[in-house]
Amino acid sequence: METRLVAAVTCYIMPPTLRHVAPEQDLNRDQKFFDRYSLVLGVLAAIALALLVLTLKIADLTQGVYIQDIEEYQAAVNKRIQPLSDVYLPGEQHTAPTPVTAAAAPEPVATVMTGPQVYNSACIACHGTGVGGAPKVGDSAAWAARIAQGIDVLHNHAIHGFTGSDGVMPPKGGRMDLSDAEAEDAVDYMVEQSK
Ligand code: HEC
């Protein structure tokens, strides 16, 4: 055991010329050199990696903090994370600036639209997919009882709005620029598609 240890230590530390080693051990010298060389390379690579991580960390602690303090950056972040909407309880003052879009009143449509055109522009948002409980166009089961009320009732509900057990149908689907006749045509089209 001891002799083997001595041989191993000799082989690693002493220059080849001073060694008294068996020839078969001598043959392993290249392999051992290669092993040690790989080890040194590995350690160097690890140090390089550690330096890189350290540099990034330092940059993060200095430059990163600096950037986060800049007003423009703060403003951009605030803009990105601002809530989509606010909740106002009854009696609370509405402080948010009026949205720009609200200022532009919807321009009256000059040309008369056909039933399908009205449906596709004003009604499909809810009645296409059933948003908010709206009966889907084409779903005859959902429309049977409504159609049974008679077309006049449906026209009336579409023009003046209607709140039933399923949800709220806004007057003319919220498109006050539509004429009564256009809304009626849209109802006729929807009923036709849902029988
Ligand atoms: C914001 C969503 C929404 C839009 C837009 C909308 N509707 Fe509706 N509509 C509803 C909902 C919800 C109901 C179901 C109300 C209930 O029965 O509770 C409904 C019901 C109806 C009914 C059946 C009323 C009844 O008496 O059963 C008709 C007809 C109708 N809509 C026509 C239209 C027409 C025409 C348009 C387009 C001009 C339109 N809707 C746009 C939500 C909408």
The CATH H-level superfamily of the largest domain is: Cytochrome c-like domain
Kindly state the number of beta strands.
2
* Oligomerization state: single chain
Under the CATH scheme, the architecture of the largest domain is Orthogonal Bundle
What is the CA-atom radius of gyration, in angstroms? 40 Å
Reading off the top of the CATH hierarchy, the class of the largest domain is best stated as Mainly Alpha
Detail the topology: elements first, then pairings.
Blueprint: H1 2-13, H2 23-26, H3 29-69, H4 71-81, H5 100-103, H6 115-127, H7 140-148, H8 151-160, E1 162-163, E2 168-169, H9 180-193
Antiparallel strand pairs: 1-2
Helix pairs in contact: 6-9, 8-9
Heme C binds at residues 118, 122-123, 125-127, 131-135, 146, 149, 153-154, 157-158, 162, 164-170, 172-175, 183, 186-187.
Verbal overview:
The protein is mainly α and 195 residues long. The protein has two domains: 68 residues; 83 residues, Cytochrome c-like domain (Cytochrome Bc1 Complex, Chain D, domain 2, Orthogonal Bundle). The chain contains nine helices and two strands. Strands 1-2 form a two-stranded antiparallel sheet. β1 and β2 form a beta hairpin. α6 packs across α9 and α8 crosses α9. The longest helix has 41 residues. It is elongated. The chain starts with a helix and ends with a helix. The mean pLDDT is 82. It binds heme C.
